[in-house]
Structure formats: C-alpha cells, structure tokens
Amino acid sequence: MTEYTQQLMVETHGEKKHPNYLAVFGLLALITLVEVTVASSWPAVLIILSLTKVALVAMYYMHLKFASGWFTTIFLVPVPFLLLVLIVIVVALTPAADGVVAATGVCSFF
Amino acid sequence: MSSESHSAHEDIHLPPPSWAPLIVGLGTVVLASGLLFWPLFPIGLLIFLFGVWKLSNFTLIEELKPSMGVNSRVLGMWVFLASEIMFFSGLISTFLGYRSRTPGARSLLDVPLMTVGTFILLSSSFGAVSALSAVREGRFKAYRNWIIATMVMGAAFLLIEGLEWAELINEGITTGTLFGSAFFTLTGFHGLHVLTGLGIMALLLVRYYLGKVSVASTVSVELFGLYWHFVDIVWIILFTIIYLLK
After folding, report:
1. Among B43, B96, B113, B157, which lies 20 to 30 A Cα-Cα from B107?
2. Which of B31, B64, B97 is a domain's end point?
3. Which residues are CB-neighbours of A84 under 8 A, at least 6 positions away?
4. Chain A residue with Cα closest to B92
5. CATH at B201
6. ipTM for this model
7. Rounded mean pLDDT of chain B?
8. What per-residue confidence (pLDDT) applies to A89?
9. Cα separation of B55 and B74, whole Å?
C-alpha cells in the first residue's frame, strides 16, 4: 500500500471525514435554480453565482480545500491567461474591429 | 560502494520502460484526425482507451513522488486540467465574440431543455464523488452502482445536447453561420470530453468486474473524478455564457 493511499485512508477512517457531498449538491442545485429563474436579468449576479458553483465543485468535489496547495496553485495559474485570451479575442472579433482589420490588413487570419 | 553513494542512488526512481504513453499519444493523433475523416474517430478512440488501460495498470508509478510530496499521477492530472482551461478559453472567447453575429440565433436556444441537462450533469458529479467515497470505504458494490449511475447521467446529458443540436440545425443554424460554427465547436468539444469520460467509466467498470478494485488503490477513481468534475465545471461556465447571459 502506498503512502498516499494510507494518507487517504486515515482521512476516511480517522478524525477527518469527507464533506457532506449531498449538501454541496443541494447548494449547487439551488444556485442553478436561482440563476435560471431570477438572476438571468443581472449579468454580474449570474457571473458571481457561476463562479460560486465552480468554487464549490473545485473545493469539495475535487477536494482542493483538503489537498496540497500545489493543486490550487496549478488550477489558478491559467486564470489570468484565460482572462487575457478572453479580452483579446472578444475585442478582435467585435464588428467594430472588422473595419480596423480591413483598413489596416493586420491579423488577416481573423 | 560507499554508504553516501548508495543513499544517493536510493533517491533516484525511474519507472520501467512502457509503451503506454506512446499508445495514448498515437490514439490521440488518430482520434483528432477522425474529426477530418470520421472512420478514424472510433479507431483512434479504441487505441486511446487501450493506452489509458495500460497506464492504469502501471501501479509502480504510485511509488514515485515528485519533490513537492504529492502523488505524481494526481499532479499530472491537475497539470492536464490546467492545460484544458487554456484550451477552452480560446473556444469560449470565440463564442463570446461571435454569439451576436447571426441575427435571431440566440432566441432559438432551448433554455429549459439545457437546464434539465445542467441538473443531470450536476447530479453526475455527485455520483462520481459518491463512487470515490464508496471505493475508499471498501463498499465496492455501491462504488459499481454509482459509476453506472454516473454513466447513465452522462449519456443522458449527451442525448439532451443532441436534441438541442437537432433543434438548432432544423432552424437553419448550422456551422455555416458564425454563431453556429462557434456554438457547435464549443459544445461539441465539451461533448467529446463527456464522451471520453463515459469511456473511462467503462474502463473502471471492466476493472471492477476483473476484481482489480481495492481500498489500497483508489487513485484511478480519484483521477477520473477530477476529470469528470472539471467537465462539469466547464459546463457550468458554458451554460451561463451560452444560455443565461443576455
């Protein structure tokens, strides 16, 4: 039996127990219901609720809350790059950008 | 040999040679080629899953620990998931850029249908984590049942997504439109990830029926769980930006 597996068994059968997965599922379902029925008119609220769901799944189902901090770091490092890609591509694909591209001939592959 | 050099050699752990990584790589290339020439898709998928199967039997790798003191297989999965974040960022960005370019397309999206699909996928995440919990506690029949339930829910999600696709294509939203090409590429790749998850679950079931499941080796189930929850996280984001964000 490996050391990692032994550590998992201590967490299961020792003082620490796994989180209440059913409660987390209930919360996820409730947030989804709120998103679909009430929050769809407020984009900022929608985004916050979605990120809350992402955090719940990552922390409790993927056990980020209880695992090594290295995993959280690895998971969060791409986020700034994701935002950068989002901004650059969305701006480049707006109809206003089409005129700029046509006029300057820059980034013709867009 | 001196004791100093003997202890230095003890710290070096190299896995024995294996064809498994090469098989997974070959399967991935053939699978991707199948997007251009469809008969290659099932062939590539079979080669890929065979390579994953061989890798899952590579138990010696559990003894290998990188200097951060974490399980190397779990670390590898997290690094892979980080790369997947970048993969989906490009697709999501393109969809956000093109979503308003086809007039009337967004009004054709079936929000109630995909809300049901979202609940099903969330439930499947609960199923996956319950399967992990069961196998860690030695409840192997419960583990098998949860894996089967998760598979059924994953398949149901794909069916619902297929219905949505059919509805849109029927209304003339095809890959020939800017919205359609962005939408089908984004949801299509997510669907492929769900399909791959179904294949991995099938492998887990085969391992169960071959008696290869034990409390001592649950890392395979945890790795699948990480992958499946990530697929769920991606859908949480996609559902918001495609169906809810106005």
Report:
1. B157
2. B64
3. none
4. A86
5. 1.20.120.80
6. 0.79
7. 89
8. 87
9. 13
Closest approach of B146 to chain A, Cα-based (Å): 13
Q: Which residues of A touch B237 (CB under 8 A)?
A: 50, 54
Residue B162 lies in a domain: yes
Q: Which two tokens stand for residue A59?
A: 């922390």
* Alpha carbons B69 and B71: distance in angstroms, whole number: 7
Mean pLDDT by groups of 10 residues along chain A of 110 residues: 49 61 96 89 91 96 90 92 89 71 52
Q: Which domain holds residue B149?
A: 81-244
Instruction: Reduce the DSSP state of residue A4 to 3 states and report it.
Output: helix
Confirm whether B57 is domain-assigned: yes
- Whether residue A50 and residue B237 make contact (CB cut-off 8 A), yes or no, is yes
Give pLDDT tens digits for B171-203: 999 999 999 999 999 999 999 999 999 999 999
Nearest CA-CA distance, residue A3 and chain B, Å: 8
Nearest to B233 among A3, A36, A57 (CB): A57
Are B23 and B109 found together in one domain? no
What's the number of domains chain B is made of? Answer: 2
CA distance A28 to chain B (A): 8
